Structure formats: structure tokens, C-alpha cells
Amino acid sequence: MIPAKASKVAVLGVDAMDPRLTRKYVDMGIMPNTKKIIEAGVARQDLVLLGAMPTVTPPQWTTLATGAWPGTHDITGFYRQGYDLDYVNLNFDSTNCRAEQLWNVTAEAGYKTLVWHWPGSAWPPSSDSENLSVVDGTSPGGVNMSSAQVDVEFIVMASDKTELTTYRSGAMTSSAKVPCVVTGLDKEEPQKKNTGMAGIMGKKMKKGFRLYIMDPLKDGQGGSNAIPADVAYSTLKPADKWHIDVPEGAKEFTILLSGGLIRRPALLLKNDKGIYDRVAIYKNKKTAEPMVTIKEREYVRDIIDDCVKDDNIILASRDMRVLEIAPDGSKVRMWVSASMNIAADMMWHPKSLYQTILKNVGYPSPCSTLGFGDFELIYDCMHQCWQHVADFQADSLNYLMSNEGYQVVFSHFHAPDLQKHMFIRDMKKGTDHVTPEQYEFIMEAIYKQIDNYLGKFVHFMDEGWTLVVVSDHAQVCPTWGIRGLGDTGMNLKIMEELGYTTLLTDEEGKKKKRIDWTKTTAVANREMYIYLNIKGRNQHEVDGEIIDGLIDPADQYEWEEKIITDLYNIKDKESGKRIIALALRRKDAAIIGLGGTYPECGDIVYCMAEGYEHDHDDSLPTSLGECDTSVSPIFFAAGPGFKKGFTTDRVIRQVDVAPTIATILGVRMPAQAEGAPAYQVLEELF
Prior knowledge:
Blueprint: E1 9-14, H1 19-28, H2 32-40, E2 42-48, H3 57-66, H4 70-73, E3 79-81, E4 87-90, H5 102-108, E5 113-116, E6 132-135, H6 145-148, E7 154-159, E8 166-168, E9 209-210, E10 212-213, E11 230-235, E12 237-238, E13 251-257, E14 262-270, E15 276-281, E16 292-295, E17 299-309, E18 312-325, E19 331-336, E20 340-341, E21 348-349, H7 352-360, H8 375-403, E22 408-413, H9 415-421, H10 436-455, E23 466-470, E24 475-477, E25 490-491, H11 493-497, E26 503-505, E27 511-515, E28 522-525, E29 529-532, E30 539-542, E31 545-548, H12 556-569, E32 580-585, E33 604-608, E34 626-630, E35 634-638, E36 646-648, H13 654-665
Parallel strand pairs: 1-22, 1-23, 2-36, 5-6, 5-22, 7-11, 10-25
Antiparallel strand pairs: 2-35, 3-4, 4-9, 6-21, 7-19, 8-11, 12-13, 13-14, 14-15, 15-16, 17-18, 18-19, 18-20, 23-35, 24-34, 25-28, 26-27, 28-29, 29-33, 30-31, 32-33
Helix pairs in contact: 3-13, 8-10, 9-10
């Protein structure tokens, strides 16, 4: 065993932190904390870490944790393959991982180890060591998002022209879905009523669920910047029948919580100049003091109030922002965050850790996924909500690192990823309501947010800690855009055009969201995989009957060759160039770290060409995009064990991160690790 060179290591994982953009903003001088860490330690000049594939959250964070390729650890997509070829299932469960995580090794070696919201095979804890603490990791978003989120975020619109107070689900957009959101893991069965995003993606079912991408620009990731938002409409009129003294000229409206099951009266109040400028929210009209008073444009965190869950009243925290108040009091617009059950501790091990955070830091923050191509919603609501996430997480980790004796920390911060999903594909051209310059402003704000977050850990370098900053992937603004393959669900458009996939139709000839297994020879399900419908292997239950696969196993090779040839021959109608970067048979995919076992690896593994990908997940990890974007992950580190002020030209791979950390801590390699220490950046030569 190599002697330890570091005694305390914190891995600061920042999801979707782009090395290309980071280098740009560091050189511009707007990321001083990031620059400080880089200059104190080691990195490539381009800051690039060579990522595993597919370039999506669960596989890449699992690779970072294990030092193994996805084909080995068996977490091969955002979703797992479901019970049939057109099903998918959640893929954050550590029991599905076939490789040992480094945190189990460090705990075994006697290091008090914390795993904080690592969305790659962290939960449930896979070691019973008393040295190991684990917080969540069951969804990408934020701590407790999968288990504590009850109500979805929504918009309040009160007007003196509104005649009815009512709550409307999904009133602001279409039925788009975003694949980076998981909620509802505190229960097994779907809720009876779904009022927006809660429940769309978050039900853990034994068989899995279907996720059909009928229109690649509206369904799946193509619609991730237009998630359905609920709207609570309210009348707005002079205050009446209050049992307290109401200021002269006050108007009243109602805020509907829990889909309209809870009603909170609110007063719209004037300032000393007679201009309406603030909202006071009350429990009821008999309450002497408001629960909260919010000025126009003010953002308020951690408002504790009731919430309805399964017909029971629970306490939840919410954030709110008053977006607009008409000076004459004729209109009010507000944003209300998702509600977070403040008693939810099921994703904390040990549970006492949750109480420690509540007592010394505060409540886990909500997450936001609003976009709509609207600058106000993206920047003033979503971005500020993620600032709450950043502050809660940084403050929590600072407290635990400083006061609870942790020596090794693995942490993950998801704010950049979900924010960029809302706009990055529109960065170059803009939209009807947001200019490219405004999108660039938002992107800079996100990287300033990252820098401020990292800045809260810089002081630990003076306290003997080693800091390792990594990301799983980044995100591109693609040149040409989405083309009908590469989404995380069932990709239909191109497979139908090629004649391999056929959908059932109704009596009027309209396509159903069901596969016709009597006519389908292959399907493209999950980011990079095509599955042949093979006799004997693939049997489909339809209306109580079993339909066998169509392809004779003896003909599998010929079918694979035919499909691969057809993929390479697809020419984009706009650019005239091919849209596929590579396509391989499963056994050949070992050269990109895939292959592995069926069904977690498809019969064919393909990858979209540069310029035709989603913002990430379906492309090569070296792909570049418009507006200085890329898909590559990032790596830089500083502190004991690493050289000081050193720039390397070595290609550092994601599988090398865990072995490198193991080396500086003087512990054994994780059992299935396939990478190697990045020898060139270590302070001791080997």
C-alpha cells in the first residue's frame, strides 16, 4: 500500500461544469475562486476530463465513484432497460451497480466518509461501515427532491379582471417532460392526482414505464425547456370581512396551495406614497400577523406552511418571489416554488444527520425547472432558486467538514445542468422573447454561481484539505439540433422512417403510443441503444397474449449490419451531412467502455454526430457546440498529494479519478477499477 499523501479530501462535483466555458470565464476574470484552485494545483490547460459514455448523469457519476467503465458497473444510461423493449426504469439505485464505490473503500480504511447527493449508485448505502454517511443521490436535482417534494412550482396571477379563483394544471405550456427530474420516491404507487411535474417522471415501478418520443422537438428532452407549469388564478378586489385591522386601500386575493386544496388570503398593500408595492400572506383572515410579507421583486426563502399529501396536512417549506405588482393595484404576479416536506428524512443515513443539518443550517431547498424561453422565469425565478440550493449545500458541507470530523467527502451540485437544459439549445439564435445576448448573460450568471459555490470551500485548502473538482459531462448548443434519435426514452421518428419500428393505430389511422410487435424488427430505446426484436429472447405481453420476436437469432448479425449501414447513410436534410458519429455492435462497444451485458447494453450502440445531439447524453464526450460550449467533463485539483501550479498534457479519463484519489489517500483501489492514477499530476513521482 502506498503511504497517504493527503489526510482530508473533498470531491466537489459540479454537474455539467463545462471546461471550455470555464476556461473562457476564468480568462475573462469572472471566476476568481476557480482560478485560485487551478493555479494552486493541477489541471490540463483546457481543463478537460475525458468522459465515459453515454454522456449522462448516472453512468458518469458512477464511473467517477468506481473507476470502472459503464460496461463494467452496468449503469449504462439515465434509465435502466424496463421489462420489455419499450420500457425504461429509474437508474439511481446502488443495488444495480456491479462495481465497488471508492467511498466504501475509504470508510473501510478508517476515514470518516460523507457521500452528499451523488446521483450515481450512492443510495441506498452499499456498506454498513460506521464510518460511512450517505445523503440522498436518488435524483439529479437537489437533496430530498425525490422524497420531500410535494407540490410543484407554479405561478400566481391575481387581477381585478379575473372573475374566478381557480387552480389550473399545466396552464402555461404543453405536455413536455424533462428527464432530469425525479420525484415521488417516498411511495411506490402513483398518486391519484397529478398536478404538473410531480409524478410525471418519478414513480418507481417494478416493470418500469413507457417514455415514447413521438415528436423529438416536443417530447422528452426536446421539450425540456417548456415544462408544464401550473397557474393559480385569483380575483383581486378591495379587502373585505377581515377580523383584523386592514390598512386603508388594501386589496385582497387568494393564493391556492396544494393544487387548490389550501387557500391563503393575501393583502396587497400600499407604501407611504400610495403605490402598491408589497404582499402580505396570512394563514386566515383572523390571524393577527402575516406569515410573510414580500416586496415587489423580493425573493424570500424557507416559508413554512401547510401542504396536502395523500389527504394529510404536513408542514412544508417554500420559496416565493413577487414578480410584478401594478402600481394601481390592478394586478399581481408571483412565483411559488415546489414545496418540500420538512420532516422527510428517509434519504439520510444516519437519520440523525438530517437533524444536525436542520439545527445548524436549515431546511433542504426546493429545485426549479422553469424555462419557457422567458428571461424573467429563467433568471429571476429558476436561477435564484438554484442559488438557494447552492447556499444550502455549501453551508451544509462547510458545517459537516468543520464540525463533524469528516475526512473524505464526495459531493454533487446539480444547478448548472438543470438551468442550462432550459435554454442552451437556443443560445446562438435566441427565441421570440430572449435574445442571444440575454442568454449569454444567464450563462455567465450560472458560472459566477459555480464560482461562488466553489469559493465557499477555498478556505479548506489552508486547513490541510485537498480539493478535487470534477463534472460528469457538460452541455452543448448544437449547430443543427435534435434529429429524432438519442433521447433517453423510446426514439421513434427515424426508426419509423427506416422501417424498423411500427406503431399501432386506432380506427381512424392515428398512431398510438404502443409498439406493433408483429411488425417491429428493432427499436431505439434509451440514449445510445438499438435492440433487435429476436425470437425466443424478446416476448411481449399484449392484452394477455404473448407475441414472440420476429428475427431469427441466426440472422442477428445480418440485421445488425443492415441497421448500422442504414444509420450511417442517414443524411440530414438541412446540412446534407451524416448525423451518426459511430455505430457499433454490442461486443465492439467495449472499445468505448460499453458492451457488457444485455439488456443494459443494446445490440447496437450508436452516437450522434457533432451538431445533431441533444445538449448531452447522446454524443461523443469530445463533442463541441456553438457559443463556446462542449460536452466534455472537467477536472482540476489542489492540495496535499497533487503538484502545485502544474499544467499537464496528459489525457485524464473519468476512470482515472477514483484511482487517483485512492492513491493520495493511501487506500486500495476499488475492486473493479479499470483506470489508473494520473501519475503525472501527483506530487510524488512513481
